Amino acid sequence: MRNSKKNLNIGILGFGHMGEAIFRLLKKIPNLSFNICSLGIKKITGAVCVESIRELVEKSNPLFLCIKPQEFYSLNRNDFPEKTTDKIIISIMAGVCIKNIKKITGQEKIVRTMPNLPLQVGEGVIGWHANKKIFKRSELKEIETLLLFFGKKLFVKKENAIDSLTAISGSGPAYVFLFAEALIRSAVYFGFTKEQSQQIVLQTIKGSLAYIDSQEKNFNLEKLIAKIKSKKGTTEAALNEIGVKAFYDKWLKATSAAGKRANELSSYEIK
Ligand SMILES: NC(=O)c1ccc[n+]([C@@H]2O[C@H](COP(=O)([O-])OP(=O)(O)OC[C@H]3O[C@@H](n4cnc5c(N)ncnc54)[C@H](OP(=O)(O)O)[C@@H]3O)[C@@H](O)[C@H]2O)c1
């Protein structure tokens, strides 16, 4: 689509953190126009702001659903126009299943995605699921091309794999921030200023990722750890204190709890 001559009218419902990021990222594609509907927003440079969801859906294809789940559940079938065969809805809402999106929007062609926070800088992980049988090949290609602008995309065959992804990459940035915060606190404890501590830790994380990127595709993190860890050395002292096996077990439990919660949320059914 980067070189596509086709004019897509992208719709965005909800212009908060994610809706705005999606607009900013997709604006880079030539030949796209944008319709946006968000509470209290009347003007956005480069987009047409429409007053109602009905008008937004009628004018746009595909339509990104970027409102919060609770905001979505406060809407009903009457807020949306009649079903149109080719209308594509791409939801980024966490924990809202396709069945419920169908019920409220009345549309058939639903794509459920699970992005994460780094989407806002074009470096997200975005898992997506759709019943491919009901889409034209060209439509699937268009969807994939759009998703590429958000970071790394991953198609999942089963809808409930979106819940597993929520537990790993959806919540993932918070896990990474937690680890960084723990290391920053240690640095402060050792006497570095808060600013120095943040710089040391963030550059260590950035540098470590760059190092991983420089490795073969099938890199092995345990081998990389072994490279740093020498017998009776400092890293070994730290890892012994952490207890690596217990650490892995703890993370398995933590992500399982997140997955279970994601599944509970997605299982909610509108009566
Ligand atoms: N943020 C993340 O990192 C992240 C990650 C993965 C998935 N998501 C999903 O992305 C979605 C959006 O999250 P967000 O963080 O961007 O939320 P947000 O900043 O609160 O954005 C939602 C926007 O939608 C507007 N809105 C609410 N009801 C509306 C309606 N009926 N019609 C038109 N506009 C309406 C809100 O306006 P007001 O502010 O005036 O109410 C707000 O501007 C959520 O479903 C979330 O699950 C977010």
UniProtKB/TrEMBL annotation:
<keyword id="KW-0028">Amino-acid biosynthesis</keyword>
<dbReference type="InterPro" id="IPR028939">
    <property type="entry name" value="P5C_Rdtase_cat_N"/>
</dbReference>
<dbReference type="InterPro" id="IPR036291">
    <property type="entry name" value="NAD(P)-bd_dom_sf"/>
</dbReference>
<comment type="similarity">
    <text>Belongs to the pyrroline-5-carboxylate reductase family.</text>
</comment>
<keyword id="KW-0963">Cytoplasm</keyword>
<protein>
    <recommendedName>
        <fullName>Pyrroline-5-carboxylate reductase</fullName>
        <ecNumber>1.5.1.2</ecNumber>
    </recommendedName>
</protein>
<dbReference type="Pfam" id="PF03807">
    <property type="entry name" value="F420_oxidored"/>
</dbReference>
<keyword id="KW-0641">Proline biosynthesis</keyword>
<dbReference type="GO" id="GO:0004735">
    <property type="term" value="F:pyrroline-5-carboxylate reductase activity"/>
</dbReference>
<dbReference type="Pfam" id="PF14748">
    <property type="entry name" value="P5CR_dimer"/>
</dbReference>
<dbReference type="GO" id="GO:0055129">
    <property type="term" value="P:L-proline biosynthetic process"/>
</dbReference>
<dbReference type="InterPro" id="IPR029036">
    <property type="entry name" value="P5CR_dimer"/>
</dbReference>
<comment type="function">
    <text>Catalyzes the reduction of 1-pyrroline-5-carboxylate (PCA) to L-proline.</text>
</comment>
<feature type="binding site">
    <location>
        <position position="38"/>
    </location>
    <ligand>
        <name>NADP(+)</name>
    </ligand>
</feature>
<feature type="domain" description="Pyrroline-5-carboxylate reductase dimerisation">
    <location>
        <begin position="159"/>
        <end position="265"/>
    </location>
</feature>
<dbReference type="InterPro" id="IPR000304">
    <property type="entry name" value="Pyrroline-COOH_reductase"/>
</dbReference>
<keyword id="KW-0560">Oxidoreductase</keyword>
<keyword id="KW-0521">NADP</keyword>
<comment type="pathway">
    <text>Amino-acid biosynthesis; L-proline biosynthesis; L-proline from L-glutamate 5-semialdehyde: step 1/1.</text>
</comment>
<dbReference type="InterPro" id="IPR008927">
    <property type="entry name" value="6-PGluconate_DH-like_C_sf"/>
</dbReference>
<dbReference type="GO" id="GO:0005737">
    <property type="term" value="C:cytoplasm"/>
</dbReference>
<feature type="binding site">
    <location>
        <begin position="13"/>
        <end position="18"/>
    </location>
    <ligand>
        <name>NADP(+)</name>
    </ligand>
</feature>
<feature type="domain" description="Pyrroline-5-carboxylate reductase catalytic N-terminal">
    <location>
        <begin position="10"/>
        <end position="95"/>
    </location>
</feature>
